Amino acid sequence: MTDLIPELTPETLPMAFAQLQLAAPLARAVADLGYESMTPIQAQAIPVVLQGRDVMGAAQTGTGKTAAFALPLLQRMLKHENSSTSPARHPVRALVLLPTRELADQVAQAIKDYAVHTQLRSAVVFGGMDMKPQTLELKKGVEILVATPGRLLDHIEAKNTVLNQVEYVVLDEADRMLDIGFLPDLQRILSYLPKQRITLLFSATFSPEIKRLASSYLQDPVTIEVARSNAAASTVEQHFYSVEGDDKRHALHQILKQRELKQAFVFVNSKLGCARLARSLEREGLNTTALHGDKSQDERLKALDSFKSGEVDLLVCTDVAARGLDIKDVPAVFNFDIPFNAEDYVHRIGRTGRAGSAGLAVSFVAKSDARLVADIEKLLHNKIELEAIEFEENAPDIRKQGRINDGHRMYTEGGPTDTRHAGHRPGSLRDVSHEGQFARTDRPVRRDSAHHAASAARDPFFERPYEAPVVAQSLPSWEAVPGVHGVRSISANIKPKRRVAALFKSQ
Ligand code: AMP
Known about the structure:
Elements: E1 3-5, H1 24-32, H2 40-50, E2 55-58, H3 65-77, E3 94-97, H4 101-114, E4 122-125, H5 131-140, E5 144-147, H6 149-157, E6 168-171, H7 174-179, H8 183-191, E7 198-203, H9 208-217, E8 222-225, E9 236-242, H10 247-258, E10 264-267, H11 271-283, E11 288-291, H12 297-308, E12 314-317, E13 332-335, H13 342-349, E14 359-365, H14 370-380, E15 385-387, H15 428-432, E16 439-440, H16 477-480
Parallel strand pairs: 1-8, 2-7, 2-8, 3-5, 3-6, 4-5, 6-7, 9-14, 9-15, 10-12, 10-13, 11-12, 13-14, 15-16
């Protein structure tokens, strides 16, 4: 039987960490990190994991789910803490599996932070890196092992680690692991573990496959759901613009400037498209880096670091970057391409509006994207309203590639170009409104500067404002480029939140 813990009510929240009676070294680490109140997933999961129950947790990205499982696991493992140098005294007792290297790295770092005042050892192993240093670390003995499935199997086969004393298993981003075909690897790994163990399964979305996996590997789990499954952060203002081809880049430039955005993710569907777009934007004067699966691990980490530190303003990426990466809060996410998989939409836009701050998600919808947008509508149980975008009169025309290929920055071109109404072509909305799923907006776009950022609902647990990285305090590339006469005020072209923006209010 599965228990369902109801959502906490405003009266019972926020709950302070102090009420938990965490062991002193963990309480100290939490204080060092500046956490005061628990997030909803933490308030619900920590007591349950402390009791030794299996958990099936549905939590949207950025909700604090790493601490929700790591803190109680560390607390339960403190009894094994010892300072012996013998590897035999440090068998793997907790295994945390994640689908991507970046996530594994991030979660391992968070666990190190939470365990910093204990003697518990942790390590991370993932592919794309030399096995030797990982092997050395494993052979010394670690209590907590964070891993991606493929590389973990390599280590198991090489007898670098044994998992017969594992007491806790965490399957994080479980839906993603199934997506990318890890099921056989997962099953093999789970077959090496003792049957008697605690299993925690987290996923931002809960498909029927995940539920099946959960029912075969979890024993009498407590289900914890802090957000409607398949929901996106309620603090994200969402817009879907009807725009095609090169106009997408033009629209991107315009929205970045009009919204005075400091940083943004730009998602594309293919590795090739990712590299190409990053190059084009860089040529057009935007400070850009690319992150996709064809880059070496080293290049991927460098790209992420340069974005995190604010050295670059735009991270053009494929879905490899969409899941769970915690890059503080980024003010905006652009879906330059509509994702093939509707659930990826939720993950992508989960990169913004994190920790309760308002975020902006802009999706560029081409005519051929009709079915993909319909899938997103279906997933979200809400109508998506396509909007037209009107280009400013004096905006540079990036379609005249010859003028910018020579390395001149985009906005030095100046001078009025044509006014174009991307996506405002007769028939374009009719094309995408197949199956009668879309609402259509084809009235002229209102020029009203009163509607800036979303007056988004705030999550009382995460009142942290957006912290631009130190380097990004200076102007982002689209602001620093001289010669633009465009207004610095609020978007004239972005319409106020309407139906789309109201998508995620609970029903
Ligand atoms: P996660 O969902 O685990 O990736 O966490 C998202 C971000 O929230 C991370 O930067 C955490 O350090 C931060 N965080 C987690 N729990 C809390 C909390 N209780 N209070 C403030 N920040 C938190």
